[in-house]
Design brief:
Strands 4-3-5 form a 3-stranded parallel β-sheet, covered by helices on one side. A two-stranded antiparallel sheet has the order 1-2. With 199 residues, it is α/β, with parallel strands linked by helices. Among the domains are: 46 residues, no CATH class; 69 residues, Rossmann fold (3-Layer(aba) Sandwich), CATH 3.40.50.2300. 41% of the residues lie in helices and 11% in strands. α5 runs parallel beside α6. Bound molecules: pyridoxal-5'-phosphate. Pyridoxal-5'-phosphate (PLP) binds next to α5.
Length: 199
């Protein structure tokens, strides 16, 4: 007999929608790639133009990057086998972070393995229960997850609407927070819109 939690999934409307799409061969999810990602990619045996990857600068296939990655694996092995906090910080991390800080002219830099982890890791360090956050309604889900972990009060505003942002700031101030952080994406990956940031 199935566990009740597994049985519940069978009637979940999101699971049903996914199954329907998958049965019709129309699901965009979990497509298998058979090549590295560049301008084109082999998707389930067919070469297709790739419009969905994060390989913006084409570095995933760059010969020098591949060479350096291979050399790093030979020297350091295939995994850090520890958290950054304890035994997982390698000289390679420090070299990379120093170079990024130098490039951006910042005091220091910290790399995360994924964007999701970045947003989870940074928001909780910046804000907490005594603060408030004003966030664009279309900000990436990882930012909203990060804010849940930060246990801060969250005030969403209409996408890219500066008047709505001002209203949300006024509402947030009513709770007398110590600090208010405004959170936006610079480029909204689903909509293709840019936040109205100057500078
Ligand atoms: C704006 C934004 N933030 C965070 C992420 C999450 O990044 P990752 O897929 O590396 O976890 C994405 C992913 O597409 C994104 O577009």
């Amino acid at each position: 007999m199935n566990h009740p939690l597994i049985e519940r999934l069978a009637t979940d409307e999101r699971v049903q929608l996914f199954s329907t799409l998958q049965d019709a061969g129309q699901s965009p999810y979990y497509r298998t790639m058979h090549s590295s990602t560049g301008a084109t990619s082999n998707v389930q045996g067919v070469d297709r133009i790739m419009l969905g990857s994060n390989n913006y600068l084409g570095l995933a296939r760059h010969p020098e990057v591949i060479e350096a990655t291979t050399e790093a694996v030979r020297r350091f092995g295939s995994a850090s086998t520890g958290s950054r906090l304890l035994n997982g910080t390698m000289s390679l991390h420090e070299e990379l972070e120093a170079e990024i800080a130098d490039w951006f002219g910042t005091e220091d830099a910290l790399c995360f393995s994924t964007g999701y982890q970045t947003n989870l890791g940074t928001l909780g360090a910046l804000v907490g229960e005594r603060d408030a956050v004003v966030i664009d309604e279309f900000a990436h889900a990882s930012l909203r997850d990060g804010l849940r972990m930060a246990r801060t009060s969250v005030h969403p505003f209409r996408h890219n609407d500066l008047g709505a942002l001002e209203d949300a700031l006024i509402t947030a101030r009513r709770g007398s927070p110590e600090q208010i952080l405004v959170v936006v994406d610079s480029l909204y990956s689903m909509e293709g819109s840019l936040a109205p940031l100057s500078g």
